[in-house]
Design goal:
Elements lengths: L4 H14 L7 H9 L3 H13 L4 E5 L2 E5 L3 E8 L6 H12 L4 H21 L4 E9 L2 E8 L4 H9 L4 H10 L13 H8 L2 E6 L2 E3 L18 E8 L6 H9 L1 E2 L2 E2 L2 E5 L13 H7 L8 E5 L8 H14 L4 E5 L3 H11 L2
Helix pairs in contact: 2-3, 4-5, 5-8, 6-7, 10-11, 11-12
């Protein structure tokens, strides 16, 4: 079968889009999902390699494919004249024009993260790495300051930096409430397709990313924030803002999603009332609280009772929801709510 030029280009585009998620089985994926023969898949992949749009690596018996990545590095020394706009101008000159939805997400996330580094980190310098490939951009902002989790720990008087991770995940935390709402990191993590923060050997991410994948072995002092945006993203900033912080006339709402797996970084199962009370710190700032139990297979009666009965009855204006519960977790929540 002979394909039109338009169809050939569309198939090649799909191959490129799916190369990052199928590095070791790109040929098989293309055959099964693009309705083309093995010979056709190999032909188009070879042409993409010749066009320098796709890279092939042969390690031993295995072949893998990846997209070529352009990288630019910038270092900025802290001064009174340095602003997030100064930094963004240089990054945008490298990235170039991107579609409006992706550009809006980039603007928001980049400005929020660089502003945090400038105003709150106590750093002497900020390093920014920008990477662009077919289909996505990846930005890493690293400072040599105090470290975000230590900053939160000190501000809230927490016992350790591990407790700071859960506080960061809630949103609406700022060490400078007169100047900031504390929503920047929260919304950035929802808007970007990948988002993670690394500091003090700990990681915060809505996605499941381990420290090695995040490049933790390279991090010394300070904070490293990385985010990725798919250039064909279907996310719309206004819809994300409306979901988590929409307004009903003069009644603002703010929804948070708290991933309880961060609490297990302390190496403990979630069983006690004191753990629950620590989780519930600052919850009065929200109108809807979604507790995500992914990777949490067990909770104790006291932990569940403190949240879903004691605290919920004292704060009827706050709506509690849960998601990704194991059968045991679901049964324990139902048990205490029935009391």
């Amino acid at each position: 079968m002979k394909y039109s030029k338009e169809l050939v280009q569309a198939i090649k585009d799909r191959i490129l889009i799916n190369a990052p998620s199928h590095p070791n089985d790109l040929v098989r994926y293309s055959i099964e999902n693009l309705s083309i023969s093995r010979n056709t898949a190999l032909k188009y992949i070879s042409e993409l390699i010749e066009e320098k749009k796709l890279l092939r690596s042969d390690a031993g018996r295995y072949t893998s494919y990846s997209l070529p990545v352009e990288t630019a590095d910038f270092t900025f020394r802290m001064s009174k004249k340095l602003s997030e706009e100064n930094i963004a101008e240089k990054i945008l000159s490298f990235i170039g024009n991107i579609q409006p939805s992706a550009a809006q997400i980039f603007d928001y996330a980049f400005m929020e993260i660089t502003n945090n580094a400038i105003e709150h980190s106590g750093a002497k310098k900020i390093h920014v790495q920008a990477q662009k490939s077919i289909g996505k951009i990846r930005i890493t902002i690293q400072d040599d300051g105090i470290g975000i989790f230590k900053k939160i720990k000190d501000s809230l008087g927490l016992q350790n930096e591990k407790q700071a991770v859960i506080e960061l995940s809630k949103g609406k935390f700022t060490s400078s409430p007169e100047n900031h709402s504390g929503e920047g990191i929260f919304f950035s993590s929802k808007l970007c397709d990948k988002f993670f923060i690394l500091s003090d050997g700990l990681i915060f991410s809505p996605q499941q990313i381990d420290t090695q994948t995040a490049g933790g072995e390279e991090l010394g002092k300070g904070t490293k924030v990385t985010f990725e945006i798919n250039l064909d993203t279907k996310k719309v900033a206004k819809e994300i803002f409306d979901e988590y912080a929409g307004f009903d006339y003069d009644k603002p709402k703010f929804k948070t999603v708290v991933q309880l797996r961060f609490m297990q970084q302390e190496g403990l199962t979630l069983t006690s009332r004191s753990q629950a009370r620590r989780l519930l710190t600052r919850m009065e700032k929200f109108t809807t609280v979604v507790l995500d139990f992914q990777e949490v297979n067990f909770i104790g009666q006291a932990f569940a009772d403190e949240i879903f009965r004691v605290y919920a009855k004292k704060h009827p204006a706050i709506k509690f929801q849960s998601t990704n519960e194991s059968p045991q977790v679901r049964a324990m929540i139902a048990h205490v709510e029935a009391q």
